[in-house]
Design goal:
about 550 residues, 6-stranded antiparallel beta sheet, 5-stranded mixed beta sheet, rod-shaped
Length: about 550
Amino acid sequence: MARTVLDLSTPALPVGLMDWGDYRIETGAPVSPAGIAASGSGWQPTHPEAIYPLITGQALWIRFTLPPAPDAERWYLEIPYSSVDRVSLFTLDSAGQWNEQSAGDTIAVNAWPVPHRHPLLPMAVSAEEPRQYLVRIENAHSFGAPLRFISESYLSRTEQRTSLILGIYFGLAGLAVMLAALSAASLRDAAYGLYAVSVALMALTQAAITGIAGLHLWPQWPAWNDLSSLVLPVLAVASLLWFSSAVVSMPARSRALHRLLTGMGGVGIVISAGIVMVEPSSRFQLMVPYIVVSMFIVIAALLWAGRHGDRYGGWLLAGSLPLIAASVFPLARLGGLIPVSFLTMYGMQIGMAIELPIVMVVLMLRSQHRRENMRRIQGLDRVDPSTGLINEQVFIERMTRMIARSGRLRHQGAVLLIDLVNSEQIQRDFGRRAAEELPLRVAERLLSTAREIDSAARLSEQRFGMLVEGPFSAEEAATLGPRIVARCLMRYKGLPEDCVAQIRVAYALVPRQGPTAEIVLGRLAQRLTGIPAETKRAVFMLPDYK
């Protein structure tokens, strides 16, 4: 079968090697380029999507001849795989010598012929005669990246676009880390802190996988550049386990699941140390199973939390699923199942770009809910929890201040006690639920009647109070009681038509009724207690005391 001819004159870039080259895998002692070139056996045609099985101590050799090509601009051999250990390009010069250029994780990036996110090796092309080349690739696990030929102008255009996309992604990740860290400090919420750590580690993982980290963060540390793309994902998954446990309050829901999640996070630290120490070709055998098992545990834990009442477990899982799905591609690449592609290099960035805003919204809603709970808990000694009205203690405090203020400003306010008198009848006629709901409806009507400067309180099961700030005249006080009675007799939405509150109101003008709030309230309570049960009257004014 005829092979595809390698043609660099085509306007369509990049140009792939396709099946134009030949390959063989070297096992044992290293062979010189001259020895490989002279070998006539064991060569097979290359394939654009081939995955070559390699381990430590082996090398993949690829040979090809470049036909005459336009030399108006510089050309490069591009290997779009930043995690490859070492790539060497050998060029046969006019003297018959093989000249070597090398790049890869085991070489400091600033020592590459062209420091870049992935190996990019300059090529000497000729417009008049063909050139012979050899490529030697070393990798601790399988190699499945294409060999491509690009011009300098094409490289400039694509790098501008790639830099824009990566800049947006890392800017978003940096913003998420900063917001989460500030929220952790201001709200004292460990979930935000763990999320900041998780996002930072995932961003560093993507920086390592795409080669950004080797180019800009550690260009002089080849050993760490080689390890980072395997160690950082494990640490990111460990932090995700701890974050997931914290955000769904797993310690309070299930101690066993909490110990499983935190324990697996601790195992991740041990796995990271193991990756550093084991033989290079065995590293991915530690990394891949740990990440796969951890992802299943996270999914199961979030599903369990959602089914057991956590309102954010389902949303957190929905936000994490794009990232979990995208992680399948680089893991499959490490396992030698698929070749290098756009999704293996950038799929997790797309997943994280979807996940980050969803999880941040979940965290904000969770924090709002927690703050509301804290406010309710802290306000239990001042607020009636069922109606939200102030309780008797706060009512007396405010009444004391109102009496003092009225005396100082020489005007009068009003104090009202309101008794709900037909609860037993409502329970007989409409059931216990309606009787329990009726005080809440009365509280709602009192709040709708009161002005912003007034106060409404629940003093006991069937008794309410209201403070009306002055200046307030006796004529206004005489109309307020009947208005409240009429409001409470209006039909309530969701309840039967005859299920209405019958109340009695006793009111007094202050500070004319006594020196202290306790005395005034005692007289109003005594007035309500002394009302005959059969009376039809509903509003009573406390006479002045001299």
